[in-house]
Amino acid sequence: RQHEAPRRVKRAWVIPPISVSENHKRIPHLLVQIKSDKQQPGGVIYSIKGPGVDEEPLGIFSIDKFSGKVFLNAMLDREENDRYRLRAFALDLGGVTLEDPTDLEIIVVDQNDNRPLFRQDVFTGRVVEGAEPGTCVMTVDATDADDPDTDNAALRYSILEQGAAGMFSINATTGEICTARPGLDRETMGVYNLTVQAADMSGDGLTTTAMAVIYLEDINDNPPEFTKEEFSMEVEEQAAGVDVGKVFVHDKDLAGSPSWLAKFTILEGDPEGAFAIRTDPHTNDGVLSVLKPLDHEVRDRFELTVSVQNERPLEPSAPASPRALATVRVRVRDVNEAPVFRENPRRISVLEGTPPGTPITTYTASDPDTHQIQTLTYALLYDPADWLLLDPHAGTVRTKRELLHPSAFLQGGWYIALVLARDDAEPPLSATGTLSIEILEVNDHAPQLQPPAGVLCGRPGRGGTLLLGATDDDRPPHGAPFHFQLSPQHPQLARNWSIARFNVTHAVLAVLAELPEGPYSLPLLLRDSGTPPREQQQLLNVSVCPCGRDGTCLDGVLAAATAGAGITLGALLIILGSTILLLVLAALGAARARGRRRALRQGLLQRSRDDMRDNILNYDEQGGGEEDQDAYDINQLRHPELFSPRAKPPLRRDAPLSSGTPHAPRKLPSSPSDIEDFINEGLEAADSDPSVPPYDTALIYDYEGSGSVASPLSSIVSSLTDEDQDYDYLSEWGPRFRRLADLYG
Which is it for the CA torsion 585, 588, 594, 600, positive or negative? Predict the structure, then answer.
């Protein structure tokens, strides 16, 4: 034989699958007996291996090694293991394999030993109220651990309990719950609790139950309604921005939902918009408030018509109903009100200089409380200049003193005062009124010539002009433009002089004919533009100087003339008298100082019993410091050679380079009548000379002198020695001077 045919497996050694029911209670239980075709009596050893034998779970199956019987030793659970695959072996007594290993499969047959289980104990669903029948809400589902290919796991669903209405149904196969009939109303029943059941064996086996909770969602199918038709409230007059009261409503829809929120409207009774109504978001009630102050004397009660509706419109399925209306009656309660100044501020005008006691106005307030009898009194709350008097009962304002310009209490020509009005109620109330008084300018000042003196060249057409100015203490329009003219009382002046307008405040004085040098007094008439105009005749002191080539005054003459212009004989006498008095005082002071120094040399401290405070010496002569340089030039006394007719004046370092020096010497007056001109020329030269003080720059003095004319204080006792003095009297002055007495006594 070239090819060996395939070995045929013995039928006795091929073991078909063995079925055994789970939960078999007769243990041990013979499952099968295996047998080898090569069996020799007492010569074959059988064995099995696999799960349930030598693998977990151990000990479930066993075999008789001599007979080949396989036994079940424990109850099986199909839900844990639905089949076992084992291997069977046949050996001889020597351990030699007689047969190839064969498979032994044990199938666990299912029994209905497991109840269905819902996936959750409570199922929750939602559906809007009024939903149509057949609207599905939710699905409940359960599981069964038994064999799904058998009726042991064939489940059927049902509703065991849902109340008397029977509003829902369930699909027995899928567990889907849907509405069964119309009429779901959240306001009637908002939650439905259903008991659902799942049963295996197609509804005839084991069962289990669960809860299905269905919530009805609210829709706006109920309009809000007032709890009553009329509401009464009360509010104080003059109160604004306050709540008056509430109107109460009821809505069957879900509280807090948009279908529940109310919206209020005032339909009638408030044409001026004095009231407003809003919704309280917590209670859904209407809150009435006052927007504008109410006046009890004008209107003491209001009757408002208020409507209410939802913010969200009603559903079309909701039953039609008219809009809810209510009447709100508001009474305005009378209270004490503060007085009122109808004209505030009160503006009046008063002429400047109005005499004291003149009535200027009556400033009164009115009391809004016309239904109450009250008396008003008045007082000045603010009168910074103490210019006014106020009648406390009539409110008449009078002047206490003259109201004059200028004043620190005027602001732009206005004087501000405050008037207080107070009633006599309990508690009293007051009001403040502002009294603005315009002080009208009166033309009570004539213009003043500024400056009242000047210098000009005495040659017509070449420097023979002088710019004149004027000032006026009155305010516009009682001041400029000013009118300058030569005095009409002296028509002869027009032959030599003329005045032409320069601008509104200045004029130009011109020489018409060549005039000799010297001072001139010109009477001028100055007039302002007030109503009525004020005019005044004033003297203009003019010094005519010799003209230079360019038409201006020569420098020296200009200085002298400038200093002398405008000085009258009275002023000259005052200057001379003051100079003589200063010289006398200086001489007396020097003599007194010399006498005291002589007395000190004879014994300064011999009067030991005198109080030291009585020995303070007064020295009237203190020398000339920087501030006294304009009184007299002490350099002329110390260095007379510098001021000789041939000497040049010393140059100051602070003097401008372009400044000229005055011409010297000047001719002495030939007669006493020329003394005034001589002094005036000297003053003008001193004022115009930049080489001597005063000058409006920082003064620099190179030469500070050789010392004071008075002796130093240290020289008082410099000629005396300690031996010449007796200091024992110091011990009598007290404990503070005893130490000095010990040192010098």
Answer: negative
pLDDT tens digits along 14-41: 788 989 988 888 889 999 988 887 766 6
Q: Which amino acid is at 474?
A: D
Q: Which of 222-236, 426-440, 469-483, 605-619 has the highest mean pLDDT?
A: 222-236
Alpha carbon 689 to chain centroid, angstroms: 62
The overall longest dimension of the chain from CA atoms, in Å, is 195
The neighbouring-strand residues paired with 329 are 232, 303
The answer to whether 14 touches 102, Cβ cutoff 8 Å, is yes
- The C-alpha atoms of residue 542 and residue 454 are separated, in whole angstroms, by 5
Question: What range defines the domain where residue 184 resides?
Answer: 117-217
Domain boundary among 176, 194, 217: 217
CA-closest candidate to residue 466, choices 428, 490, 502, 492: 502
Instruction: Classify residue 676: in a domain, yes or no.
Output: no
Cis status of the peptide bond prior to 735, with omega within 30 of 0: no
Nearest by Cα to 462 from 567, 557, 545, 380:
545
Distance CA 28, CA 26 (A): 6
Spatial CB neighbours of 14, under 8 Å, sequence gap ≥ 6: 102
Contact status, residue 354 vs residue 402, Cβ threshold 8 Å: yes
CA distance 482 to 41: 168
Residues 61 and 129 in one domain: no
The structural domain count of the chain equals 5
613: number of CA atoms within 13 Å, CB side?
1
Give the span between the Cα atoms of 140 and 65, in whole angstroms: 54
530 assigned to some structural domain: yes
pTM of the predicted protein model: 0.43
Tens-digit pLDDT profile for residues 348-378:
988 888 889 999 999 999 888 777 778 899 9
Q: Treating both helix axes as pointing N-terminal to C-terminal, what angle do 675-688 and 555-564 enclose, rounded to 10 degrees?
A: 110
- The residues with which 642 forms a beta bridge, in sequence order, are none
CA distances from 385 to 414, 463, 721 (A): 12, 52, 68
Return phi, psi of residue 744, to 5°.
-110, -15
Q: Which residue has the tokens 């002495």?
A: 668
- C-alpha dihedral sign at 574, 579, 583, 589: positive
Rounded CA gap, 170 and 139, in Å?
8
Helix (H) or strand (E) holding 48: strand 44-49
Contact 543, 561 (CB under 8 A): yes
What are the distances in angstroms from CA 106 to CA 18, 86, 103? Answer: 5, 8, 10
Helix or strand (DSSP H, E) at 582: helix 569-603
The string of DSSP codes covering 364-432 is --B-S-TTS----EEEEEE-TT--EEE-TTT-EEEESS---SS-TT-BTTEEEEEEEEE--SSS--EEE
Cα(665)–Cα(451) distance, integer angstroms = 29
List, in sequence order, every residue forming a beta bridge with 286; answer none if it has no partner: 247, 279
Q: Do the domain assignments include residue 473? A: yes
Report the C-alpha gap between 115 and 200 in whole angstroms: 7
